[in-house]
């Protein structure tokens, strides 16, 4: 059978196809055919679609930028924190923030009375009173133990408060954590550069500037602190470096300064007062205003109560018993004295010291307070309200040890103008004792006679000078004692011209008037200037028998912790200026000034005293300087601008102030006589008050020298004394129409052969 050719006609399934297994998709569509899903019809107009699209695009851009920026900032902050972290030392090395040391001053009893510089005392949070640590945390950073260096809630709250009070967001409350404040105290790790900064104060002031850039820099530094140190370490740095007013750096120093106790022993009220100082140390310092400091402490106590640190009973007790200053802190005595001591010591151990220094001084707090009370009483009673008149007072022992100093009416200031040591004023008649000291040393006697009458002195260049007495009266021939007692000008100038101005200048200078002394005839009337300290020290030389003294306040200086002092006493007894006989006679004459002369307002009852008034010719200065057996005191009164005093002379208010001060400081002390020499030089007089003196001898009965002196002095014939007491008439050699010049030392009444001198020559002649 022939096979068919050509393409067969398919009328059914392919036999091959029949062998395939087909599985149809569930949707019934043929495989291999691409279908396009139909989109839902768009709704809305093109404007809406454009807005939505734009917002979406912006959001995507912002979000993308933000997380990228955040990542960059995180890396920058992390790198900065790591940098700061690598430079942080051990926490103990950051406790003491001072560039200078401190000076602590002790009085003659060894008690602290003044501080200079910034005092410091190390304290750690584990050794401090818990209530003080709690007060600091409650006041400065209640979330301190829960954050990592920053408190966003605190910052937001501070910004809100600042804006509500009309300030800028970063002005006023800063919302800084304690960690951030430590960063600021550490100046963000910067150290003082003397080339860039004028001084440490300027450097620290710049560190405290709260600019935005500095706030930004605080963030990584705060993170570094938190990473490097524990919370207690950070708190320790804060509590040691913080300045708390009155020169106290750190809470230990502040506790000692204000309460005279360590920081471990403070009460809740005291802790609150200390913590309150952190906001404004100088403003809230209790030494500046105790009531203001107590009010601030009440705010802190309530914060502590709200945060659970104090219960109701503790709060009530603390508010009922507010913190008060220690006796030394409240007295604030010795400001002028302390300033003077700082000046007398070497700068590298006082004002510029880099060490903590302790100085033992001659200061007596009881005498200082007594002097301040006396001055205040006189001014309250005798001086008009609103008067600008000033006063200065110096109290010292006969050896020059200064016990008290008042440099102005405001006795609570430090660093103020000290009129006792800085004001050089004309001394007036208070200079006259040095004229008579020169005369007595030259051989004159208190009984010598000098004429008190009109006087004209020829001056260089053909000029002439004619002094006049204060009363414009003249008394004719008077004794030297009367001339000094009445403060007669013409008589004093005649004595000066007789002994020579050079001799007067030498005596005054050797006694301690180191200011420039004039060479003109007005020298004897106090035309030259001197400070109150100089003049009082010179009178101390008279009081101790003619030996000069250098006033001093520093007794011993040592570095804190050292056993051996670096310095000892800076002054004291010096060289003999006039003989003991001349000094004793001068003391006798100065006693008469108070007894019946120009200084009667200075009388101390039965207590013997000697002194001299002083008033300048223009009434710009009034003085009274005098002494008892125990103390030497000088008083000056005047105006800072040299305005003349109205109705005030040295024998008036200055004498009354002197009497009030000496009365206060001698209360309870025994009445001791002054050792003087009788007018004829025959013996030592131990005066009893203003009464009749009697001739005795100092020393015990067993002393052969004293016994011999007593025998000679008491055996002097009274008629011989009377004959000697007539004295010699003194005239000024340069006086117009005056007598012939007198040779110094030619006195007929009290010379080297007087009774006392003969007794000494007889006793000592065989030695």
Compact summary:
The chain has 26 helices and 23 strands. By secondary structure, the protein is α+β, with helices and mostly antiparallel strands. The strands form eight sheets. A five-stranded antiparallel sheet has the order 7-6-19-18-17, sandwiched between helices. The chain has a four-stranded mixed sheet with strand order 2-1-5-15, covered by helices on one side. Strands 12-9-23 form a three-stranded mixed sheet.
Explain this structure.
In the N-terminal section; belongs to the glycosyltransferase 51 family. Its EC number is 2.4.99.28. This is peptidoglycan glycosyltransferase. It contains 26 helices and 23 strands. The longest helix has 42 residues.
- Average pLDDT, rounded to a whole number, is 81
Tally of DSSP helical segments: 26
The radius of gyration over CA amounts to: 44 Å
Residue stretches low in confidence (pLDDT < 50, at least 5 long) are: 13-22, 687-725, 736-767
Strand content: 5-15%
| Residues in helices, as a percent range | 25-40%
According to DSSP, the number of beta strands is 23
Give the termini separation: 189 Å
Biggest pleated sheet: 5 strands, antiparallel
Oligomer: single chain
Estimated structural class: alpha+beta
- Which strands sit side by side, in order, in the main sheet? 7-6-19-18-17
Shape: elongated
